[in-house]
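Input record, target 12 of the design panel.
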């Protein structure tokens, strides 16, 4: 039995994403590239058509076994050449035309481009699912008042739907970014050892175009021995940005689940799930904590990807070993974060009563702005009224006296309000502004966009 060490092999990432970066699938893609190369050569007239047919027929994992590739690689210490030799030996006379004119990274960069395209599709699907849940929460709780906090302190009233709409808008941008970056990054090359296409003669550009068309990817505009690594770095940077937004969302849920806040809870399987090995009462936000922890790894991978942009002359090999770890790990960890947050949002427990209780328990102080602004609307000097209300708020905090009563006892405040008007203005449920409308606007926009795509 194979020893499993890295958590991405047994703990993180979906089966679909693992398959994209599995050794078996990588070999399958490398063989597909070799077949596309042979077919393009035959179409242009560079090799016999019968040879291309044989190569295409044999360029499958059924004929070229991973075990045989490994055996050859152990002997010659070269991965791509091991695949070439394993393919050539099952092709008979046609084997002499395998890999004609190509360099290793012609095969490897095309393989990577296909993997990135497949991974991007999985991430796109997860993002759309996450957006559906955020839009649902934004719409459902668009009018549910709760306490807004800045600097970790009570600030002003918002609605829970407004919070979720903010995240929905952020992840809508991530969906747009993904489509943009994937279109730019998922490119391959068939341009030879230093990119000049000398190996393919005057038909080099046409050969490359035909190979990329068969593989369903675009051609790099120009390349050296490899596709420029600023493209791959851009993709990993994107994943780091997406991961940080997932971290932000998960952190919000974690903070709202704190014992003293208690406004939401991530799903907990009451009948079976254990929160602590010693404290039977614990219901910890472990799913959100996992998302936040993995984001730290993702941000570190971005640095490695940026380092790979800097290579010597037409190429050195320092990026290769790094990318073998960075690319699959980044994709698998983001996949895990997305899947986890979708599950959290689908099963999120929202305590509207606790939200209202926390909002009201914050006291009248959070409505100081409302008093100040309404006084200005009624003719007060803005700077003077800010100072008056600030002094009353400080007195209330330091003396534990009622802010409401201090306002009612202030001659400057009473110049503009009756006691009843002060009571009305201090109701935080009446000071959520356009939160409900904004939440509904964003939710409908997201749902309409996703619905149109599903119909299409």
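The sequence produced for target 12 reads:
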């Amino acid at each position: 039995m194979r020893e499993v060490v890295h958590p991405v092999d047994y703990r993180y990432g979906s089966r679909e994403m693992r398959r994209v970066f599995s050794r078996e699938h990588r070999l399958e893609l490398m063989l597909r590239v070799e077949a596309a190369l042979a077919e393009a050569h035959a179409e242009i007239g560079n090799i016999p058509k019968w040879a291309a047919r044989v190569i295409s027929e044999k360029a499958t994992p059924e004929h070229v076994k991973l075990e045989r590739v490994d055996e050859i690689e152990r002997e010659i210490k070269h991965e791509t050449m091991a695949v070439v030799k394993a393919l050539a030996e099952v092709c008979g006379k046609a084997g002499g035309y395998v890999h004609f004119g190509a360099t290793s990274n012609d095969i490897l960069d095309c393989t990577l481009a296909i993997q990135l395209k497949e991974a991007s599709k999985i991430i796109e699907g997860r993002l759309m699912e996450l957006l559906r849940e955020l839009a649902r929460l934004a719409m459902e709780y668009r009018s549910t008042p709760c306490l807004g906090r800045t600097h970790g302190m009570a600030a002003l009233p918002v609605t829970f739907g407004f919070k979720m709409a903010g995240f929905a808008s952020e992840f809508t941008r991530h969906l747009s970014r993904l489509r943009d970056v994937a279109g730019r990054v998922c490119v391959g090359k068939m341009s030879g050892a230093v990119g000049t296409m000398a190996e393919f003669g005057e038909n080099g550009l046409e050969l490359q175009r035909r190979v990329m068309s068969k593989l369903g990817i675009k051609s790099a505009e120009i390349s050296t021995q490899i596709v420029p690594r600023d493209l791959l770095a851009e993709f990993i940077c994107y994943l780091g940005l997406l991961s940080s937004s997932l971290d932000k969302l998960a952190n919000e849920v974690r903070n709202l689940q704190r014992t003293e806040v208690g406004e939401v809870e991530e799903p907990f399987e009451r009948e079976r799930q254990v929160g602590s090995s010693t404290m039977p009462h614990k219901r910890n936000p472990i799913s959100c904590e996992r998302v936040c922890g993995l984001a730290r790894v993702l941000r570190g991978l971005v640095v490695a990807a940026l380092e790979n942009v800097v290579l010597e002359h037409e190429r050195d090999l320092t990026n290769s070993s790094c990318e073998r770890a960075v690319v699959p790990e980044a994709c698998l960890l983001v996949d895990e974060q997305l899947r986890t947050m979708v599950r959290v949002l689908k099963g999120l427990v929202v305590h509207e009563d606790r939200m209202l209780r926390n909002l009201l328990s914050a006291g009248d102080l959070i409505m100081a702005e409302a008093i100040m602004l309404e006084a200005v609307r009624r003719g007060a000097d803005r700077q003077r009224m800010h100072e008056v209300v600030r002094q009353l708020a400080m007195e209330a905090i330091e003396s534990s006296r009622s802010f409401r009563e201090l306002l009612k006892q202030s001659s400057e405040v009473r110049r503009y309000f009756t006691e009843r008007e002060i009571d009305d203005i201090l109701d935080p449920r009446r000071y959520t502004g356009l939160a409900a409308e904004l939440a509904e606007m964003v939710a409908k926009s997201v749902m309409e966009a996703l619905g149109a795509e599903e119909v299409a």
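The first strand starts at residue 145 and ends at 150.
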